Amino acid sequence: MKQRNFVTSLFASLFFLAAGAALAADTPAEAPKGVTLVDAKKVQELQAGGATIVDTRKASEFGEGSIKGAISVPYDPEKSAKEPVFDAKMDKFDMSKLANKDAKIVVFCNAGSCWKSYKSAVVLAANGYKHVFWYREGVPDWKARKLPME
């Protein structure tokens, strides 16, 4: 009986550890310092006002479809830890396509489990970009709302 309880407790512990690890893999629910968290409606408003919409997913993902009017600036390769504090020097994000540091820039990727847009927002803000917006819910939310894709 003791062995059975031990095995049950062991499996329960492993389950909760795995569940906790899965939750820890998600990006923070709040925007990083110097960045504004936005929803789909706000993305549309910003885009209508001339904001640059940036798809930070891999170029191959962008090629499969993206938010209409978005440009591809992949945060790739992404080798740093998927944590709020990460070493951006381990990754590659080419900001040369985003020369105007005063422009409104919206970054997105594949929802809360995708760190590319979070990290790109951090990098942009740290490099003096003044109007950085993070669309955390990204492509899955945009598609679910049946908003324009290309």
Kindly describe this structure:
The chain has helices spanning 2-24, 40-48, 59-63, 116-126, 138-144; strands at 35-37, 52-55, 71-72, 104-108, 131-135. It has 150 residues and is an alpha/beta fold. It has a single domain (28-144), classed as Oxidized Rhodanese, domain 1 (3-Layer(aba) Sandwich). It has a 5-stranded parallel β-sheet, with helices on both faces. Helix 4 links the parallel strand 4 and strand 5.
Order of helices and strands: HEHEHEEHEH
Look at the structure and give the mean pLDDT.
88
> So what's the CATH class?
Alpha Beta
Query: What is the count of structural domains?
Result: 1
End-to-end distance, in Å?
Answer: 60 Å
How is the CATH topology named?
A: Oxidized Rhodanese, domain 1
Question: If you compute it from the alpha carbons, what radius of gyration comes out, rounded to the nearest whole angstrom?
Answer: 18 Å
Helical content band = 25-40%
Give the name of the CATH architecture: 3-Layer(aba) Sandwich
Helix and strand composition category = alpha/beta
